[in-house]
Amino acid sequence: MKIKLYKAYSFCQQGQREYQEDSRFPDTGGPDISQRFFIVCDGVGGCEKGELASRTVCEAFGKALKKIDFDNDFTNEDFSRALDAAYNALDAKANNANREMATTLTFVCFHGGGCTMAHIGDSRIYQIRPSEGILYRSDDHSIVNSMVHSGNLTPNQAIDHPQSNVIARYMEPVDPDSSRCMATVMRTRDVQADDYFFLCTDGVLHCVLDDQLVDILSSTESDDRKMNKIASMSQNSEDNNTAYLIHVEEVETDPVTAEETEMYDEDSHATKKIKVASQTLEDIESVQKSASCLFSRNWIKNIFK
Questions:
Q1: Which of 189, 233, 252, 295 could bridge to 259 as Cys pair (CB 3.0-4.6 Å)?
Q2: How many CB atoms lie under 10 A from the CB of residue 31?
């Protein structure tokens, strides 16, 4: 399939934090229209050199995917190789002063096989279709989120929970005998003209609710004005706040009988497929819930806000 994009928009704001630990790729408010993949990372606060971790991951992905032909299918294996390259870059930058550095990751890529979305941590990805609302929202790799899925907390109790800033997965340098946190990967061919893909750090999520995001993106204003509105709502966030907005202009699909959406959780090696012809938001959420509770590591890192 062929996916044509409008001009993408981005912002990267410091908020009320002393340092900027968010990073993005491409690192610009308006990338070239030919850009096919986008990344937003949030360096883990309270650890050494969160800004170095987030920047290193963004730059490593950019380098690893520089020569990829996105007219072809971008496979899970292609993503895994790029993720390995990013981890290797983190390992190469690590020393005694920054061994504890860490970052979240959100990644969206448009290619001949559809769209690939991947994340590690609590930065967020949305696919929003103005006529229908949220088609996909990445499931945060957080302790509180897993408690909600297990029934130990209600969604309302989770909002102000004292452990709301504790994440269960993140990217960091690791010793040779340690395992790496892997990503939850969503591949979908259910992409239509006028769909929006939105990547953001949790500093944006503190200020913009899901319903507000849908309302803004469903309005008749220009994409530039929509993004400026989100940036204005987020600029005084207690945290750094960074986002990318990608708007689909046109989609040329292959002659297939049914589209398919696949979620792959690398940490658990769990894969589930959904036929888009009968897909509902509840279908996606059920896959997210099953994947979110499958952690291969039993330790966590606290993000100090």
A1: 189
A2: 19
